[in-house]
Amino acid sequence: MTTPSPAVTLPTDKELVLKVIPMPADCNANGDIFGGWVMAQVDLAGAVLPARHTQGRQATVAVNQFIFKQPVRVGDILSLYASITRIGRTSVTVQVEVYAERFRAQGEYVKVTEASLTYVAIDAQGRPRPISQPGS
């Protein structure tokens, strides 16, 4: 982890897809929120935009990149923003950025995590299936 960075402005080129507040049960032994808990929230948030394209079942097929920039603390209000970076024949890749509004600094945001994930459209048997392309 790096030293605290100055407050940032929230992105305007991504969509707010999830807001969540971590609780004490989500902490590790150091008193910070488990990285795995943050990863689960990113996976949930990342799945929102691809669902509009897959229009059915989808699964996370890859975590292409995951960067923890700052710790997440109990009481932070996390805002998760997403944007689609690629739509393939059966998959959608999404960029997710997580911003924390610190409990004691309301209105100020710090980017705590960024990630790239790929989701694949799947059929009832769990096999990849084509995504309907716009205009097709």
Keywords:
five-stranded antiparallel sheet, 2 helices, mainly beta, about 140 residues
Summarize the helices and strands and which ones pair or pack.
Blueprint: E1 15-20, H1 35-46, H2 48-54, E2 58-68, E3 77-87, E4 91-101, E5 109-121
Antiparallel strand pairs: 1-3, 2-5, 3-4, 4-5
Structural summary, described in words:
The chain has 2 helices and 5 strands. It is mainly beta and 136 residues long. The chain has one domain: Hotdog Thioesterase (Thiol Ester Dehydrase, Chain A). Strands 1-3-4-5-2 form a 5-stranded antiparallel β-sheet, with helices on one face. A hairpin with a 3-residue loop joins strand 3 and strand 4. It is elongated, with a radius of gyration of 16 Å. The N and C termini lie far apart (46 Å). The relative contact order is 0.25.
